[in-house]
Write a structure and sequence with these properties.
By secondary structure, this protein is an alpha+beta fold. It has 8 helices and 12 strands.
Length: 377
């Protein structure tokens, strides 16, 4: 039955962006043929094409020399903000054309953004994802859409969250067998995470998170500096988290983890190109988002945790349910799309890895998302 359903999923061979890889359904329900972007050599790609779709940041000190140069390019990304992300005191001077959205509305917008970058449509992209890709996207978006990621401080009368201000989805990096410190497929340096871009307000608050909830009042922003001994993941320069729980004798706290650049001037194209799924992205607000479930920071929502003496345990997505305080809706399907089974239900992924963005291959990116200023051809 699963094989028949997978075979029925549409093959995206006719839709491509420049040199985009083809998304195709696997031929079986297991670890079928897929694009193994992790096997590509990671070399310096200073000449890799930009895949940001022409987004510009007026506050950037880099001059945006690596952004798209097509003057007709429009990224159509929302919400649009007025003001620049400066120091902490300037964050709330930024005004954005957005409001509180439902979790489903925010997810719809982001899946649609990634589909656009891959020159396809929302329903086709979602149908091509494996189960771990779907759950990774769902788990990271639910904590960003919870009150623990509210952008405004208590008393402001504004319940907008970081998810309301996420305006780009660059990559969904699913699980992969053999990855992680324990080689169990539940972790890895590049797996089990998503990469989002944020508008100027969210970017400013993330870099200066203390202003969102100075007294740490319950029911509001719970971002704190990460106590992870490894620091920010390269090439990023700031790492924050939401503290959920800690395993026995573990000095590192488990829970949502996010890595980003503390300032636009920290941005390094060559460094970002080394990371799977985001080669060529020129957006200095890009943020790596995941959740640490155990002492070695395995982060697969389909994995089982608790054997290391953690104060909580179970499947990753069940742990998420214990802490986010809102309904995660693990059965989410993009609005207007038919219900489809994931192309592969393995805990460690498999299938086409259709959610992943461009990666480095030799001296160039594997695909040029939204080539020619956002026009697919």
């Amino acid at each position: 039955m699963r094989r028949a359903l997978a075979a029925a999923l549409v093959t995206l061979s006719g839709l491509h962006c420049g040199t985009s890889q083809t998304l195709q359904a696997p031929t079986d329900g297991g670890g079928g043929a897929h694009v193994d972007v992790d096997s590509s050599p990671r070399l310096d790609a200073g000449s890799a094409p930009a895949v940001d779709g022409g987004r510009t940041h007026p506050d950037s000190s880099r001059g945006r020399e690596d952004a798209a140069t097509d003057s007709s390019a429009t990224d159509a990304r929302s919400p649009v903000c007025v003001g620049t992300a400066g120091d902490a005191g300037a964050c709330y001077a930024i005004t954005c054309q957005t409001t509180v959205h439902t979790l489903a509305e925010n997810r719809d917008r982001l899946v649609g953004d990634l589909a656009k970058r891959k020159c396809t449509d929302t329903c086709t992209l979602w149908a091509a994802l494996n189960e771990s890709e779907r759950y990774i996207f769902l788990m990271d978006t639910v904590y960003l859409g919870a009150p623990s990621s509210a952008l405004y401080p208590p008393g402001a009368g504004n319940a907008e969250t970081a998810l309301d201000h996420a305006d780009a989805l660059y990559s969904i990096n699913g699980s992969k067998a053999g990855q992680g410190i324990l080689f169990n497929g539940l972790g890895g340096n590049d797996e089990n995470r998503i990469y989002l871009g944020f508008d100027a307000l969210a970017q400013c608050v993330m870099r200066n998170f203390q202003i969102a909830n100075p007294a740490h009042d319950a029911g509001y922003n719970q971002w704190v500096a990460s106590n992870d001994l490894a620091g920010p993941h390269a090439p990023f320069t700031q790492r924050d988290m939401i503290a959920w729980f800690r395993a026995v004798l573990d000095p590192q706290t488990q829970g949502p983890q996010f890595h980003f650049w503390h300032a636009d001037s920290d941005f390094t194209q060559t460094g970002l190109n080394q990371r799977l799924g985001v080669c060529g992205v020129t957006d200095p607000s890009i943020t790596e988002l995941t959740i640490a479930f155990d002492s070695v920071h395995d982060s697969d929502p389909l994995g089982t945790y608790g054997s290391d003496g953690a104060s909580t345990g179970g499947l990753g997505w069940q742990i998420v349910d214990q802490f986010v305080g809102i309904t995660a809706d693990w059965s989410y399907m993009p609005t207007g799309c038919p219900v489809t089974m994931p192309v592969n239900t393995s805990v460690t992924g498999g299938g086409t890895y259709a959610g992943m963005g461009p990666s480095l291959s030799g001296s160039s990116c594997t695909s040029a998302a939204l080539a020619d200023g956002g026009i697919c051809k």
